[in-house]
Amino acid sequence: MLTRDEMSTAFATWGAAWNEHDLDGVMDLFHDEIYFENWNGGSVRGKENLREAWAPWFANHGDFKFTTEETFIDEVDQKMLFRWQLDSPSFEKGQGDKHEARRGLDILHFRDGKIVEKLTYSKTTIELDGERVRLTTP
User: What's this model's pTM, rounded to 2 decimal places?
Assistant: First the structure.
């Protein structure tokens, strides 16, 4: 079991790896049995499958940056919640030339000192070049 301080330190290292676009560093904190669920409902199980799914995004998505807005750590249950803002080239179809700001949160479950579950939720509005846009279902 990780202490609250160990969870906080691991999270800070992990966050830095995201913002350095360091896929290996991001993957270091994941348990081999990781279950990841994306904001769009897609999911991946297993560390190598997740690495394979994320590799193109890390290689091709440009200069993205996560800003942590708030964290909640539950040392007893080995869980963490963090609220974030993602700044990046837009994910939205036909909008890749625009800057996107997307806000959401992740729920992280730890086992054996690693993240074994990562559930991601995102708001249904984003900002494109500073203008609020409501997301729609394709």
Answer: 0.89
